[in-house]
Design goal:
Layout lengths: L1 H15 L8 H43 L3 H8 L3 H27 L5 H26 L1
Helix pairs in contact: 4-5
Amino acid sequence: MKKILSLALVVASPFVVCAQDGNSTEFERKIFEICAMIFVVGLFMIFILTIMKRILDHRLKNKILERGITDSVALSILQTNPNENRNINIKWFAILAGIGAGLTLVNFTRPLGIHSLAIMAFCIAISFLGYFYFLKQSEK
């Protein structure tokens, strides 16, 4: 019972506490800009790492073909999960749909602030949850 009460107090405290002045919009804008830049840099880094992975995989396959390694060894090295390649498009659809839904909701709840980041986080989390359930259904 104590854990439930403590959890309820922690969840409800942001709604009760209001220690901000009315001129915090500049501070919220700076927070939003910093978080947006971190997000963009993260996406760019993921893009670069994906490109590098594909290039290195291609080079590895070429080296295996050049050296004439036996079929069983080559298959064990190059074995990939076909379900992973098939579902990657659905994963990116879910991510981009979540980002699009989040940006749409942020547009309707102006001005931009910390709540915009919360909306984006929840929309992306919901899209990942939908992708997770899709994977569970496709395994059956």
